[in-house]
Amino acid sequence: MTLREQVTMQPRRLQRLAPVFLTLVALLTLPTATRAQQVPTGQACVDCHSKLKDQRLSAPARNFKADIHAQKGFTCLDCHGNVTHHGSDPRDITPTVGFLTRPGRRDIPAMCGRCHSDAAFMKRYNPMLRTDQLSEYRTSVHGKRLFEMGDTVVATCIDCHPAHNILPPTDPASSVYPTHVAKTCGRCHADSTRMAPYHIPTNQVKLWSASVHGEDMLKKGDLSAPTCNNCHGNHGAAPPGVADVPHVCGQCHATVADFFAANGHDSIFTANKLPGCVTCHSNHGIVLPTDSLLAVRARTVCAKCHDPNSPAGRQFLVMQTLIDSLLIEQANSQRLLDQANYLGMDVSQAQFDLSDVTTALTKARTAIHSFRADSVAPQIKAGLTTANNAAVQGQAAQFQQVTLNTLQLQLLLQNQPAVTVSGSGT
């Protein structure tokens, strides 16, 4: 390029840069108060939005005060970014400066993950809090559909943890407090319209609420009873696979799971696409099992593979007979002890010993999951021995009382003072 060309282009270059220089000069010469007003604080957001008539804009500002993030000192700007220009018109926001008005559903996990995936940062607020939520979410059914299929209807962070009103999970008012988890999941999964494209049932919450697990939690207040996330996971939520069901149930029912795994039926069930425990007990609508179910399962489940009249097909019926025999002896022993107690005899030790029969029954019912009567029989035998001993003590106490009553009657007839026999309650 010649010197003439260079000289000719210089004014054009200056002309292009002139607007930039003018903008910089204007910004530098703005009054300090004006520049400060362009970057509102988080409290300024709350003050302004809480007064707006549009509930979509004012409700979040009012709710945020109780939010765990507000309690820890976070403000609106920590999630929504900074505002360098905000005029009188609420829509007058410059998006190019990084201000996030309402994040897209696909962007929400990453936005929450900016903090919750940073172990060093989260340690400052709660050293015990896990920081793998985003990683887990990517493995969930929700996460896979969101990131791999672009399905923005699936649940993201804010569907379980309502934005601007997030409470600690230990707070009884929290959306993820144990008694509220099913309701939170049900906001989507009980919505037939929302679930229609996925062709999955919408009665899970109703079934669970009436199940033994739901009643334990909702009616008895047992917070250790399983709810949705105990079986499906939370951030990594997914339905258990056929082979996984015994391991999921085994988190609580460990001994039962051991019996089931030891008998070899776990692999048989998996090979036949039978989901272990669910095959007999169902999933969401689990009811408290009764001994009579053994005969029912023998006809419905066992009969799928075993001839009902074969030794294998009759195992459940044999086990039911064994359990019934112990229940009969337990009731008989309890009756004898109650009669002795009514007569005034001290049978407290025998009554205490009889409680071991309940333990034996529990062990026998657990051993049912071996699908072998010879695993149940030892527990029944131990229970029968205990029940028989209690019955003997009850009969002996009654005989002693009858003998005492007879002796007292004879003495009264002879006008002699009554005597007290050791062991009598009189």
- Average pLDDT, all residues: 85
Total of DSSP H or I helical runs spanning 4+ residues: 24
User: Which descriptor suits the 3D outline?
Assistant: elongated
Rg (C-alpha, Å): 36 Å
- Number of extended strands: 0
Share of residues in helices: 55-70%
Spatial separation of the terminal alpha carbons: 128 Å
Which regions contain 5 or more consecutive residues with pLDDT less than 50?
A: 1-11, 19-37, 84-93
Helical/strand content category: mainly alpha
Oligomeric form:
single chain
* Main beta sheet strand tally, sense and closure: none
Portion in beta strands: under 5%
SSE series: HHHHHHHHHHHHHHHHHHHHHHHH
Describe what you observe in this structure.
- The chain has 426 residues and is mainly α.
- It has 24 helices and no strands.
- Helix 9 packs across helix 10 and helix 23 runs antiparallel to helix 24.
- The longest helix is centred in the last third of the chain and has 41 residues.
- The radius of gyration is 36 Å and the shape is elongated.
- It starts with a helix and ends in a 13-residue tail after the last helix.
